[in-house]
Specification:
three-stranded mixed β-sheet; alpha+beta; single chain; eleven-stranded mixed β-sheet; HIT family, subunit A; 316 residues; 12 helices
């Protein structure tokens, strides 16, 4: 099946049913979602974080993303390395839409570039908006190469069924401050949200792309040693309007990730974690995660307060 341009990517339910009927690994992991442990942690400011113990995510949570480890394994997103059971839908000529066999969502997609190219968003944010418009009822997300991407050597987006992440509702209903109103684009900064967050809304893909580029350039100046500034991005299309959520980052992983013994928490925050769903593949971590730990880890991996103030000042 092929979808191009701004057309909807249709037939996703049939695609999932077909894949789960033909692919035992994927079927087992999607069936196992019925048995994951879930708890809600109320946070100050009337928001929440939903914690999920999901053993199938060990591969992603503990992924080694240093250059040596990447060079020693085949790329699992290149078409020639896909399992024979894994089928694809083409989006235009450039992207493969795939069922993610290690799901967080009940409908979890990976959208991989057809060519083997590093995970760098610049020049491809417009693609993200087109995919968000084409995937009805999904939220599309991007993890930077040091912001949760387990395949930083192959450019890809992911998408999950809409409404799963608390952030999708909270960015509309919780306090936020308008910092930019520029024709077709409005940008807000969330207030009291425990991780510094920008919310962009507009009906012009070109203008949204221009503002994301500006944010990117400002952050790049703050993090000159990075291949790209550290950030996670969510995008959804809502009846003529794109809503884009940008989480600027200050750190790849919290100190607890590399700690030993009882101090270790195997959590490598990515878009979904910033979106309010914390995924851990170990039950002992699931049981230990509470409000204080969530606030501590967010304070480590989110953009620091001084840099955040500089970003808002330069944007405004």
């Amino acid at each position: 099946m092929e979808n191009t341009g701004h057309d909807r990517i249709t037939g996703m339910d049939d695609f999932f049913r077909s894949q789960l009927a033909q692919w035992p690994l994927a079927k087992k992991n999607y069936d196992d979602l019925n048995r994951v442990l879930i708890k809600d942690v109320a946070m100050p400011g009337n928001c929440l974080v939903r914690v999920q113990f999901n053993l199938a995510r060990m591969r992603s949570s503990a992924a080694r993303v240093d250059k040596k480890s990447i060079s020693e394994r085949p790329c699992f997103l290149c078409a020639g390395n896909l399992p024979p059971e894994q089928k694809k839908i083409m989006f235009g000529d450039s992207y493969l839409v795939l069922v993610n066999p290690f799901p967080i969502f009940r409908r979890h997609l990976t959208i991989a570039l057809t060519g083997h190219t590093d995970q760098l968003i610049m020049g491809r944010f417009g693609d993200m908006l087109r995919i968000a418009r084409a995937l009805e009822n999904y939220t599309v997300f991007y993890n930077g190469p040091r912001c949760g991407a387990s395949a930083p050597d192959h450019f890809h987006f992911q998408a999950g069924i809409r409404g799963f992440m608390p952030v999708e509702e909270e960015v509309r209903t919780l306090p936020r401050k308008r910092i930019i109103e520029d024709g077709t684009v409005v940008i807000h900064a969330m207030e009291g949200y425990h991780r510094n967050t920008l919310v962009m809304e507009g009906d012009s893909a070109g203008d949204l792309d221009r503002w994301v580029t500006k944010i990117y350039d400002i952050l790049q100046g703050m993090q000159p040693g990075e291949n790209e500034p550290m950030l996670n991005i969510l995008a959804g299309y809502y009846g003529g309007i794109w809503r884009v959520v940008v989480f600027p980052r200050g750190r790849h992983r919290p100190w607890q990730f590399e700690a030993e013994g009882e101090k270790q928490i195997l959590l490598s925050p990515a878009s979904v974690d910033f979106g309010g769903v914390w995924i851990t593949p170990r039950q002992e971590d699931y049981e230990r995660i509470d409000q204080a730990l969530i606030m501590d880890i967010f304070s480590q991996v989110s953009l620091g307060e001084v840099a955040w103030a500089q970003l808002l000042d330069r944007l405004g």
